[in-house]
Specification:
Layout: H1 2-9, H2 12-33, H3 38-58, H4 67-84, H5 89-97, H6 103-130, H7 136-166, H8 174-182
Amino acid sequence: VGVWVCLRTFDQHTAIGLIALMLVPLLVWNVIVARGLRFPLALQGTAIISILAVAYFVDEPLLLRTVPPLIGLSFTLNFFISLVRGRPLVESFARMQKPELSPQEVTYCRRATWYWVAVLASNTMMVTAAIFLNQTWQWLVAAAPASYFLIGFAFVSEYVYRKHRFREFDMGKPWDRMLHRLMGGAR
C-alpha cells in the first residue's frame, strides 16, 4: 500500500526515496535480528535496493512492481533449497515447538515443505503476472490482498489437515479446542 500511495502521490524519484526510507531500515533490522537467515535476507535486501536504484535512474515505475515477485521467489527458493540441503524448513519450524519428532512427523514435514514450495511458487507466479497489469491498483490487489489471501488459505488448510492427521491439539488455543471438538477428540 505504501508503494501505491507513493507512486500515486509523488513523482517517481520522490516516491522511490520514500519507498527506500520505508524499506531499508526494515531490511537492515531483519538482517541484524535473523540468526540463521542472515544470508538469504541480506541477498533479498540487496536485490530490493538494487531494483530501487535502477528504477530511480531508469525512470521506469514498472521496475518497482518487481519487488513482491522477488520476495516471493526468495521464499520459494529458501524452502526448496532446504529440501535439497539439510533439514526441510517445515521440520526446523516444527522442532522449535516439539524437539523430538516421530518418523511419521519427519516425513510429513518433508511433504509439507514441498507443499509450501508449490504454494509459494504459485503465489510468485501470480504476483509476477500482475506486474504487467495496466493499472497500478490492479497490481496492488494482486500483490497484496490476493497474495495474502492465498498464503493465509494455504496456511489454514495445512494447519487443519495437520491437526486432523496427528490429533495433537493445544487446548490453550481456542482454535485448537474448536478443531478438537469438530474432529471428535484425540486418538
